[in-house]
Amino acid sequence: NYNYLHGVLRYYYRNNYIFYKDYLQKNKGYITGKLSDRITEYIKQLGRAASKDELKTHLNISSDSMIFNVVNNQSEIFQWDYNYYNCLDNICIYSDEKDLIIDMIDEIMSNHKNYCSAKLIFEYCNLLIPDMITRNNIINANNLFYLIGAIHSEKYKFRIPHILPAGSNLTSTEDIIRSF
User: Fold this and answer.
1) Cα separation, 140 vs 118, whole angstroms
2) Can you tell me the distance from the alpha carbon of 38 to that of 8, in angstroms, rounded to the nearest whole number?
3) Which helix (DSSP H) or strand (DSSP E) does residue 127 occupy?
4) How high is the pLDDT of residue 167?
5) Contact at 8 Å (CB) between 67 and 85?
6) Which of 75, 101, 125, 138 is the most exposed place for a label (fewest CB within 10 A)?
7) Rounded to an integer, what distance in angstroms lies between the CA atom of residue 107 and that of residue 112?
8) How far is CA 37 from CA 24, 59, 117, in A?
9) DSSP codes of every residue in 59-93
10) What are the phi and psi torsion angles at 17 (to 5°)?
11) Under a CB-based contact definition with an 8 Å cutoff, are residues 132 and 124 in contact?
12) Is the pTM value of this prediction over 0.90?
């Protein structure tokens, strides 16, 4: 009987576990709550991107898929680089810089048959808005690609390292190469 077992465990191991209605949790001092909130709060406290291993260790996350699901379903948290994640609260980007990024992507696309790559926009941003790059600790094209994907996901289609117009039918690198 589940309820009987729950009661016996609570009686004998009152100090070792935290007991809830439907489950119990090892009492290690971990904070409970929504995983997305816990990840966001941890990354905010760090003030920088956190690695997958840091998140798993600090937040007692058992699988990569738990992190992946949070990142895919939470607009506040985004991938920063391979196996690194950041949150928008750690980013300082002004509205005129966001508009300028759109203008730069549109200009690159007009010169390259509706195509832009992470490297092209990274080089362009380094020339025109180096302060934004420095202020946000953007050290490579992937960082900028994922940031732009987080703030402009409705305007463009993102497939690493490709940035395409939102309505584009191109879905793979092969499709992109064939279109040129």
Assistant:
1) 9
2) 31
3) helix 118-128
4) 81
5) yes
6) 75
7) 9
8) 20, 11, 32
9) HT---HHHHHHHHHH-TTEEEEETTEEEEGGG---
10) -135, 155
11) no
12) no
Closest Cα partner for 102 from 86, 85, 124? 124
Looking at residue 180, what is its pLDDT? 67
Below-70 pLDDT ranges, the chain: 1-2, 22-26, 28-33, 171, 176, 180
Predicted local confidence at residue 31, as pLDDT? 56
Question: Helix or strand or coil: residue 34?
Answer: coil
Cα distance between residue 163 and residue 57, in whole Å? 33
Residue with tokens 């971990």: 30
Residue type, 22: D
159/95 Cα distance (integer angstroms): 24
Pick from 80, 76, 86, 42: which is nearest to 61 by CA? 42
Say if residue 161 is preceded by a cis peptide, omega within 30 of 0.
Answer: yes
Query: How far lies 54's CA from each of 39, 81, 140, in Å?
Result: 10, 14, 21
Tell me the HSE value of 70 on the side-chain side, using a 13 A CA sphere.
Answer: 21
d(CA 48, CA 102): 25
Question: Between the CA of residue 145 and those of 21, 36, 80, 93, 153, what are the distances in Å?
Answer: 44, 22, 8, 14, 11
Backbone angles phi, psi at 105, to 5 degrees: -60, -45
